[in-house]
Amino acid sequence: MTGFAQFAYSDKSLQMTIAVRSYNNRFLDVNLRLNNTFSPLEDRIKSYIASRVFRGRVEIAIQLTSQEKLRNRNITINWPMAMTYCGLLTELKKSLNIPGPIELGDLLSLKDLVVYQENTYPEEFLWRKLAPSLKKVFDALQKMRFEEGRNLGRDLLERLKAIRKGVGLISEKVPQVVEAYEVRLKERIKKMSKGVEVDPIRLAQEVAIMADRSDISEELIRLESHLKQFEALFKESNPVGKKMEFLLQEMNREINTVGSKSLESEISHQVVSIKSEMEKLREQIQNIE
Q: Which CATH number fits domain 3-69+120-144: 1.25.40, 1.10.10, 1.10.3470, 3.30.230?
């Protein structure tokens, strides 16, 4: 599910900002953008995120900000490189017969001569500062995600209601299927036999064979069971997205079997409608943790 939260922390020792975004994804995918100062905490940060978010793409940026940046840096000269540069410039001047001395500005413009290095903080010190801030920003993120989850839940329940209605209409048609088949079979035999008497025992056998082949009662019972389990997941507090995916796969398998056994156009029509609602369910479930 999607969401965004941001938090800023400041005290006498450091200042930092944390921004986190989450997007829909079938699996957990964490993308960190860290200030170099926080790089040693990368594994801890990922572990914390995994304890709060179980599904989705999470992008988090943590930046160290300071009003007195220069006080938090060591500025040094790379002396071996400076000597090398100076020797090369001197040799170049002689080779090209360039007059004048080597200026300080010539050296300072060269790459990596002046080294800026952030002062490092102890890892445990940083984590003590960062952990409470992470909790606050993820609390805010989860609040937004929960609101989206409630909206998705309402939509899913409407889809389930439509599926239940279709299953109910199919169940009502089941007792009529065999009777309708027997009537059609008698009419076809009557036309083909041209008045010849039909063996009622043989006719009964054919009807029984068809009834056995087209029986969908077991599929409807299992489908009803899956629907009840699916609805029960709305009462759970733990992540249910993967459970919903599994149940939906089972429901889809049952309705496909119903469709393949169907001899009535009205049942086939309801199967198509139910599969359409299941596809919409599948798309929405990808967004649920």
A: 3.30.230
- 3-state DSSP assignment of residue 103: coil
223: its two tokens: 């489908």
Domain borders along the chain are 3-69+120-144, 79-112
Nearest one of 95, 94, 130, 89 to 108, comparing CA atoms? 89
Quote the tokens at residue 106. 């010539």
Is the pLDDT score of 45 beyond 90?
yes
Confirm if 46 and 74 have CB atoms less than 8 A apart: no
Digit-coded pLDDT (tens) for 247-268:
999 999 999 988 887 767 788 8
Residue 19 CB-density burial (10 A; 0-12 exposed, 13-18 middle, 19+ buried): middle
pTM listed for this prediction: 0.60
